[in-house]
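Fig. S4 source data, part A: sequence.
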Amino acid sequence: MSTTGIGTFTIRPLDPLKDAELLHSWVTHPKAAYWMMQDAELQDVEREYMRIAAHEHHHACLGLHEGRPAFLMEKYDPRYVELTGLYDPEPGDVGMHFLVAPTDRPIHGFTRAVITAVMDELFADPHTRRVVVEPDVSNKAVHALNEAVGFVPVREIDKPEKRALLSFCTRDQFLAARGVAV
C-alpha cells in the first residue's frame, strides 16, 4: 500500500480471466499506443495475461486507487524476460512496465503518484536492488516520469519490437528523488 497526497494505492495480483475485459479496454485505448496492443481482441489479452500468469519470471498486477482499478503493473526478471542478452544484469535487478488506465477526469499528478506507488511496491522486496525499464525511445513523457522518480538513462538498445531507452533506478536514487535522506 502506498499513500500519497491524492489517495491510497494498493496492488493485487492480476486475474487474467476476470480482469481481461477491463485490461482490453485499457490496452486498446489510443493513449496506450506504446503498449503495442491497439488491435488486440479480448481473447488476445486473455491469452497474453494467461501466458504471463504461467511464467515463472514475469508477473502482472492490478493497481487500485481508493479501491478502484487504476493501473496495470508488470514486473519481470530481466535475466529471463524482455532484456535477455541485451545488457549484463546484476543481482537484484527487477524489470518493470506500468500502464495508467485511461480516464475522462484526469487528476493532476496522478501518473507520477502511480509510478511512485509501483516503485514503492518493487522496493518493498528487500532483494530488489535496482529497477530496470526499457521504454520506447520516442516516449518522451515516460522518460520524464522515469527521471522524476530517479531513473538514469544508460543507452539505447534494439529490441525486436522497438528501439528502447535502457534506464536504471537504484533504491538510493529512488529515495533521493523523493527527497528522502539516504
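Fig. S4 source data, part B ends here. Residues 110-123 form the longest helix (14 residues).
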